[in-house]
What we know:
This protein is mostly helical and about 250 residues long.
Amino acid sequence: KARRAIVAALGSFQESTKPEMAAKAASVLHTLLERGEPSYYVEASALYALGRTRTAKAYDRLVSWLDKSSFNEVLRGGACHGLGELGEARVAPVLTELLLDKKKPMDARAVAAQGLGTLARTKRLDPSEAQTQAVEALCAALEDEWELVHFAAIPALADFADARAIGPLERFIARSVDERSARMARRVVLRLRRGTNTRDETKKLRGDVEDLREENRKVRDQMRALEARLEAPAKNGATPAKRATARAGKAEE
Length: 253
């Protein structure tokens, strides 16, 4: 955690305000990423911090890491958030392509949506073709078969505060069988209709997303534990029924 905090702190030096310090910080981050780290989380923090520096070579480095898979897509997540922090129009097509690529894992599509949300929050993207592309991709993501993608796309649409998302969100609410995601979508629609983008509402919405992510992690852990228990008998050459018979035989003895 200490290394992650140190690496993350390097992102506080930005090209626009402290060009010399930003260049030094970016150099350290590039070196770390080239050398590699034992922890995915340190590397993800480095990718995010590199995006925050907004230095010249950050874009190419971050894009190159989008092909790297990892546990829970931690690395792609760092790269996507880092790209979002750049606040550049050329980031939108890169992230939308990943978001809509059904060949990629659902976690990868979800972090792409989160990256678009980060891009929106920089307030550096003018209402233009890039924003249109991002909003349309996020609306399309509402039709993804996985709820995890919905949980990422809905807050990102809130971040863009684009009224064009109202229709797709209302259609999503009408067909959604998950009350949690429908509730999130209703909040966003209400905000878009009122034309507000208050900090408290955003904080509440993101709190709901974090709770859902935690629930998702717990379910996955339970599934992995169950799979491990089911695979153990096959590796040991004994089925649960055989072991029960053996225990019964010992009890008779």
